[in-house]
Fold these 2 entries.
Entry 1:
Amino acid sequence: MMDVLWRTAAMIMGIVFVCGFDFAVSYDRPPPRNTLSIPLLSNKPNPTVPQQVRISVVGKDKMRVTWITDEPTPSVVNYGTAPGVDQFSANGSTNMYTYVTYESGEIHDVVIGPLTPNTTYYYRLSSQKTPEFTLRTPPQQPPIKFAIAGDLGQTDWTKSTLDHISKSNYHVLLLPGDLAYADTIQPLWDSFGRLVEPLASQRPWMVTQGNHESEKIPLVHTDSFTSYNARWYMPYEQSGSDSNLYYSFEVAGVHVIMLGSYTDFDPNSAQFKWLSTDLKNIDRNRTPWVVALVHCPWYNSNKAHQGEEECVEMKQAMEDLLYGARVDLVFAGHVHAYERFTRVYKDQANDCGPAYIVIGDGGNREGLATSYTDPQPTISAFREASFGHGELEVVNATHAHWTWQRNDDTGATVADSIGFTRNNPNCQVK
């Protein structure tokens, strides 16, 4: 009922939502799938029982545990390395937010640690005896595997993507924007939190924002990213950032940079200055691999989202920074299809530039972007309009392996695969 009311209100207000080696496998695309709405489970009638549980990386040996309750309850995590044994305890904070007539539940935030790398922990929330959750910390050094999926939404395709990811032995999930597709309908944020809890409560999810997270309504709700910032609190302070919309973190020899397409990025902006400093401070002996994520793609041969300011002008402002720092890979979302580019710089193949990958095919309600420019650019190595997800396995300090796994009716199919050699730090940039 609340979902219907929010959709009706949105219509009344007239809101317009703005939106190596390789091989291919032939494919007959299945029909569209239904939109999902995940209600609160009937076995969680207690308003203080944790829901929408998820974890994220904070520093080299800590995790942030976030969850929501319908009513106030202590923000405490009891945890240990054996089931049912509380060896450690940590306290945190609680916040909430309002959005027009919507009032969120109690959003709990607790940082736990120090934690041992590559170890399973058992944890309980809010002093509740049940349920008990488990999480696995990432390894301290490679090999490490990242699952990467953009523009998830919450449809049957999303569920298929999440089911496929759940069968992977990934350590960290990276999401380059467009999470819940709530688009001002706040109960959909809660639905999305329940949908991803089975995965997000076990492995860290690290995200950046997309256009669907903005949720700004002129004259009605004038602040952008209210819900996103309250619900998906990322470790921006630890990287010297002043905004939850852009940050970096390090894990198992990889420096990961999360950029914000929908906040200022020109050379005079705080984000530009932060990125410049962050790149200069990278120690390639400690983190030989550097990976960046951004929502609006800088390279894209799909007809969708061509010429958008957030893509074109951000590329003009920041491409030199990534190229000069010899960033290895850049992942983007926004375009609801998959495309992998060679290493490029200023629209030309360049061995010193990053390889760019568009991975906005997680399963959103808006469907696939099926039309590409013709002919295919020479720098575009593989492209296909299908839902799916990617996996990046950093094997060691010099080699990594990437696969794109296409959704189908029965399971994930590896449709694109390539090995990467780390960008040589001594590469002579032009």
Note: Helices lie at 2-12, 156-166, 187-200, 226-231, 270-280, 309-324.
Entry 2:
Amino acid sequence: MAASGGEIKKSARLAMMELSNMLSVPMALNAIVRLNVPDAIWQSGSNSPLSAAEILAHLNLSSSASPSNLQRLLRLLSSHNVFAEHHDGVDRRYSLTEIGRTLVADDDESNGGVSYAPYVLQHHQDALVRAWPLLHEAVLDPDGPEPFSRANGGVPAYSYYGGDDAANDLMRRAMWGVSVPFMEAFLGEYGAAGGLDGVGTIVDVGGSSGACLQMIMRSVPGIKAGINFDLPEVVAGAPAFHGVTHVGGDMFKSIPNGDAIFMKWVLTTWTDEECQLILKNCYNALPVDGKVIACEPVVPERTDSSQRTRALLEGDIFVMTIYRSQGKERTEEEFKQLGLAAGFPSFRALYLDHFYTVLEFQK
């Protein structure tokens, strides 16, 4: 039986109420990470369902801490499958789902125990939160400062991180927590399938500390030399890794030579013209048959309501708000055209991850 016009309007109003209040979800997520709730529940793998009062007891917080307010946060996040609620009709207890488990550091000491918790905190710093009410300015004045700069005294996001040690450290931990699981998938599929065969020297453009480059070199013994290329002030504090040379410079001017060039979430924050220049400099740094391996979010051609599409489009608006009003996530075809404009005759996209896509530009 078809829904009546009145029922359709009620559903529409309910949907708009949810959308209008959706800010509650990331803010609740930020709160439970700041309170260390996931660690209190996980307890080295036991993941035993706990009440809000029991969680607070594990956290050794002050006696004034509110179990009822914590439970309200847990109920909201349970509706988004971060926690599993166990309700016997009287008491409510909570354990971590697979989604919630991403907020607890893994047991791999070799990578320092990574989690998505720093990623949550990094996205919700005061300086970033201040930018969101100015998002409409990206529409009204796309050539002007991005919302982040407008909200923070004209300071762009990259300069903000460069001038604040605590924010920069949080950014590094956030990106490391996201990078490790992706790099493991990348090396397990792309590397194992021979994507890096024949590469003697690899350049990581925008490689920050060089940790991802180290992972590549450990996994592919044939690569004898790695060049970690980033801004001089970034590589100045990079740690020493066997076989890795840290080189400071400007990717808009030139890029060190190598058999392959790797970059991860670099192109997304730049305009089409800037991306063409970056890729052209990559082209000039490669031998015949050399290639660029770019790992970027790739938005679908058609918009749907799948979780993947929503996550990608949300990330696109984050870029618009925080980094560049005209930086953007792109479709596969848009990336192909950027490569062709830079001189790369061959292109392919490999969907090895739900968020990042591996883009291969062959010279």
Note: The chain has two domains: 5-102, 181-362.
